[in-house]
Amino acid sequence: MVVRVSSHRNVRILLVGDRGVGKTSLILSLVSEEFPEDVPHKAEEITIPADVTPEMVPTNIVDYSAVEQTDLQLSEQLQRAHVVCLVYSVADDDTLMRVTTYWLPYIREALSHTRRPPVILVGNKVDLVEYSTVDAACDIMEEFPEVESFVECSAKTLKNISEMFYYAQKAVLHPTGPIYISDRQDLTDECKKALTRIFKVCDMDNDGLLNDAELNSFQKRCFDTPLRPEAMEDVKVVLRKNISGGVSPNNCITLTGFLFLHCLFMQRGRSHTTWTVLRKFGYNENLHMSKEFLFPPIRVPNGCSTELNHKGQQFFTAVFERFDKDKDGALSPFEQESLFSMCPAPPWGSDIKDIVPTNHQGWVTLHGFICFWMLTTLHDLPTTLEYLAYLGYPISDDENQLSAITVTREKRVDLLKRQSTRTVYECHVLGAVTVGKSMLCRSHIGQYLEDVPDWEIQGVTQCTINMVHVYGQEKYLVLKDIDLPNKDAVLHPADVACDVVCLVYDGTNPQSFEYIANVFTKYYQESKVPVMVVCTKADRPQVRQDFTIQPADFCEMHKLSPPHAFTASRDSSAELFVKLATMSAFPRFHAAWLLFYRHTSHLRDLSILSNESIVWKAGLGIAFVAAIGMIVARLIKPASR
Q1: Cα dist. 264→212, 243, 269 in Å?
Q2: Could you tell me which residues come within 8 angstroms of residue 326 by beta carbon, excluding any fewer than 6 positions away?
Q3: Least packed by Cβ within 10 Å: which of 71, 136, 564, 609?
Q4: By the 8 A CB rule, do 140 and 100 touch?
């Protein structure tokens, strides 16, 4: 991706003014670098290529002639212009007077219902006089704020011709209006807001100051060159001389000093410096972060998904640790507010504690923070790309947010190879109302019946994510509760497609199994999606199901694993979630599942299986066995044919 200096694809300059002031001569003198003796009424439109302009942007120069054009044609040209050069003759007071009595009011009227382009006031023919009209020009600029700048020149001697067109181009690419208020000699509120965010992004240690290393990093990002030590000290000397509190006692630049520097740039006519900074951090002419910057294009083929890769995880981890000021491993409300002050709004609401792991106060932990971005990247990639930009992910000509994203291979390839290379798996949880789907999802993030009141989960569709280990590898499992009002309701294709299905029935409710049996028969009997049947409330007396076949026999008949007994209590283990992740990681490879089931069953008999970490320390030991199982399966596959 290339971050352009401006969003303008070209600059269109229109020259207007009274007859005889030298509009056409100015254009022809610029092009030929000599004064034309034979001047036509109107010059043809001229295009200056990008590679010969200071800002590397193609520039169109358009002439106006009252002899050849009507007022309607002039209005049309004004509508198309990015900047207007209003030319008068310094040797003719009448043409100067008509700048305020005719031309500027006319331009305002013609553009009353649209945006007004900036105006450059041009005093031509300085070769004919010994005086300057600068005082009159200053009065005009004070009365008409759309007049951005003023230049005196001569088409005959070529004095300031290039400068005139440079100022015109600069007025389009680096306009002062959005970022500076001349009357107050201060930055606009919108500019201060944008620069404050940039300051926070560059404040890597989050101490409210820019030290020399941070300032140098900022300089290299914006201007592709480091700041020499003596130049850095010169900046601090200027701040100490001009503003109180611009430099901290420990010789770092404060936010006050940072904003003052940009105000100083504007006062010295260096609007391009501030605009370069703003655009390097994604801001457009309206001081909004541009869509191009926030959402770089990415192609995700059908059957593929998107994941936050190691580089993306490292970035979000670093952001979290910067704002976790008390180093307790969780974001307090104040720390969370401070972190997302760089963004328009937080990416989550008050329900975040019901989605990812949190501490006992409901504050998002580092683990929960990474889980959230894993989930968001899977379900809502644009939001992840957007917040990577907001939070300061390094974006330059050579890199953007896409370096933090991995597009997975197609799922059909995973099915053919019977092994997935993905890191994040999605499990859809289906079952009748009140069978315990919500609590099954909540227990995935460490919330149990003892912790969650009934009113909090009734009628609320759950979606949770947590990390599990599959044969020693870190994987993220998303549990999504698919809400169906009754057994006859139709599943949307998006609700059917997933990495693994968890069909849930209530062991104490004799009518609950029929619901998932119908779902299985209708949607998954011929599907390649792995299916796990789960019996909830397994700690209570079980009843016979009012169905033609009992759950265990149903599973055996359809070559499914036996129903998994589950209780959403603090004493339950994470075995179910590891099973689901294992089935996702090895789709259609039953040997890998059975190795896990048999091993965990053996551990449970020895009273070893007490929590997820212990399970997967043991899982490391059977990884080799799993690999052997895969080899054996491939060897016997031809024989089975």
Answers
A1: 20, 11, 9
A2: 332, 335
A3: 71
A4: yes
Is pTM beyond 0.85? Reply is no
More confident residue, 487 or 24: 24
Are the C-beta atoms of 11 and 58 separated by less than 8 Å? yes
Residue with tokens 């209780």: 567
Give the pLDDT of residue 457: 61
| Confidence at residue 5, expressed as pLDDT on a 0 to 100 scale | 42
Beta strand 253-254 with 209-210: parallel, antiparallel or unpaired? antiparallel
Q: What share of the chain is helix, strand, coil (3-state, %, to 5)?
A: 45, 15, 40
Residues contacting 82, CB < 8 A, separation 6+ = 8, 11, 12, 13, 117, 172
Contact 503, 431 (CB under 8 A): yes
More confident residue, 591 or 523: 523
Distance of alpha carbon 219 from alpha carbon 66, whole angstroms: 49
CA distance 349 to 166: 49
Coil vs helix vs strand at 299: coil
Greater model confidence, 123 or 141 = 123
- Cβ atoms of 350 and 362 closer than 8 Å: no
The SS3 of residue 524 is helix
The two three-digit tokens of residue 447, written as one number: 């919330």
d(Cα 592, Cα 570) in Å, to the nearest integer?
Answer: 28
272 class by beta-carbon count within 10 Å (0-12 exposed, 13-18 middle, 19+ buried): middle
Tokens matching residue 10: 């070209």
Give the SS3 label for residue 180. Answer: strand
CA 614 to chain centre: 38
Q: What 3-state DSSP class applies to 83?
A: strand
Place of tokens 């007049």: 147
Q: Reply yes or no on whether the pLDDT at 632 is more than 60.
A: no
Task: Count Cβ atoms within 10 A of the Cβ of residue 145 and give its class: 0-12 exposed, 13-18 middle, 19 or more buried.
Answer: middle
Predicted confidence at residue 130, as pLDDT, reads 93
Would you say 466 and 445 are in contact if contact means Cβ atoms under 8 Å apart?
yes
Give the pLDDT confidence of 100-128 residue by residue, as tens digits: 999 999 999 998 777 788 999 999 999 99
AA identity, residue 231: A
The position carrying tokens 């060159």 is: 225
Query: Can you read off the two tokens belonging to residue 587?
Result: 């789709």
Count of C-beta atoms within a 10 Å radius of residue 204: 15
Tens of pLDDT, residues 71-98: 999 999 999 999 999 999 999 999 999 9
Listing DSSP states for 378-406 in one string gives HH-HHHHHHHHHHTT----SS--GGGGEE
Of 418, 533, 428, which is closest to residue 491 (Cα–Cα)? Answer: 428
R_g of the chain computed on alpha carbons: 34
Predicted pLDDT of residue 413 = 85
Q: Which residue has the tokens 């099915």?
A: 415
The β-bridge relationship of strands 463-470 and 119-124 is unpaired
Which token pair is 263? 């105000």
Whole-number Å distance between alpha carbons of 628 and 618:
17
